[in-house]
Amino acid sequence: MQVINKWIEKEPSQNAVTILRDRYFLKDGEGNYLESTWDEVAKRIARHVAAAEVNYTNDIEEIKNAEEHFYQLIKSRIFLPNSPTLFNAGKTMDRQLFKKDIEETTLEDYKTIFDSRTKHNMLSACFVIPMDDSMNAIFDAVKNAALIMKYGGGVGYDFSVLRPKGSSIAGTGGKSSGPISFMHVFNTAASTIEQGGARRAAQMAVLRYDHPDVFDFINSKKDNKGSNVLNYFNISVNIDNPKKFKKMLEEDGDLTLEHPTSSIKKTIKANDLMNKMVENAWKTGDPGMLFLGRHNQYYAMSEHTPVTATNPCGEEPLPPFGSCNLGSIDVAKLVEDIDLGNPNSEDASEFQEIVYWAIRFLDDVIESNIYPLKEIEEISKKQRFIGLGIMGLADALYKKELPYNSEQTRKFMAKLIAELAYFSHVASTELAKERGNFPDFQRSKYPNGFIPFPMLDDEIDEDLKVWNQKIRQHFQGEATKYKRNVQTNTIAPTGSISNLADTSSGIEPNFLLSYVRYMTNKEGDRVPLSYINPILMEKIGTNMTEELKAEIIEKGSIQNIENIPDEIKKIFVTSMDIPPKDHLLAQHVIQSYLDASCSKTINMPKSSTIEDVKAIYLQALELNLKGLTIYRDGSLETQVLTSASKE
Ligand code: CDP
Asked: Taking a C-beta distance cutoff of 8 angstroms, is the pair 255, 248 a contact?
């Protein structure tokens, strides 16, 4: 593939290499590095995952062909799997097996790799762990979550099953302390694991909007300054049916808070609940909203194993014990050579091939993964969740000179994700023909011609019309017989892997166009490294004076810099330059073609009022969203990124 040749020899930046050295290069038991180059990492992952193909073939050339494609995708950083795959593939295995040239690698070697997998080879980022309303079950869930977080996976839970605070406990005659008190137990477990684990532990807590403790839940992170209260949790209120809830708000209706295992019952105004959520989200970003009813509407197994929560960043809805491994294609590396989104372009086949190998890689990860629990292995193999998404959208838009916040750009976004979804599902169907359907296929909605996302109106764009037709044809035709994976598309935040790929993260606009990062040099001194978005640098070209550079670094955005022409300002927008409603509409069009979900933050300026936040919350109830996360600039003291002028 031509576009791969263009990127394969490009070395990762200094920033990416620092991250690799800090977190991704394998080390031995004494902390000595076993790897020192990106090439070694790419080879290790490609070989470990390709070894899963021994389950399907004895043809060594076929396995090598898969390894070679995986290697090229990863080495070029056009496609990267989620961090646990990068950390844990090949870990604790015989190094010699990964050092051999591909020509010398034998079928026995692949089999040895596959057979020597251990609990250290946990490759997935996303899990949902269930709990029952009993001490035993709650503390089992703590233990299960600990095992997952230890190897770098994130966990979501539905706390709604726990009886409200003050309910009777038959066994002790006492009163229950309620779901929020147990969230603190999970939080403490997460903080303890972090000290020995691969990365910061992350969790999602979900509570139904009609649980009697919902106000305590909404208030549970109220005093959060970014690092103290329930800081290993994101929290989301599950509003099962957002349209019904909207109607309740409009009619100023009553809402009964109740729980099947408790006599506690309260009646409140739906508007009081909404106002409290909005007020706290204005203060700290939490809680978000989650629309699990909509998740289930588009999930092919919802009649048997409904999804009950999402992973920590909200992009992956899962049923109890579900797991998903993610991977992301960097579209910024493709846009100059492939006319993405255009169904009539000659190079669509090149994108299709990239998607095919990415899907095959993720499907192989299901086999090469070692699961922390047998229940997780069981459902993961019965339904075969995978999540292929994109990163680099913002940088791709800069290159295409499309402003993130425009109607024309939203059409491009829709076409791009429609193309990704179509090719992903076609790939999953191709794999099913060779490897078999996911075992639950016949019980799923697919045999009835089910389309696992809402799509957008044909009329908005001629090309989109073509994608919509292809999608309908696929799901009413071949997909009624063949599907390897219950879900195929998820857009992750790509918080770490986008740095490794030197691209913008997920589908987010760039938070800043420039910043200063401090690195420790060989002598142990902290040295400032300033970064300016390279596409902007190229665009400004020889007009980039030292003074201008300094001003961009100072401000992080170019909107208030006099010497930059308006055409450039329009294109090179940052998260904070984009009105919140345009963030929301971007999420809406992208979500319209995703069977799982996407990670997206609706950034709002510091000056936004509680009413402004409410308007966004209300609008979100109407669109094709599966959830909502907002962040008002400066509302947490420990914000991850700020421009130099705010430090
Ligand atoms: O870029 P990377 O693969 O490291 O991760 P991401 O795309 O930022 O996050 C994907 C998912 O990984 C999250 O939604 C979590 O489920 C999990 N995660 C985690 O458990 N702990 C973190 N510190 C970051 C992510």
From this structure: yes
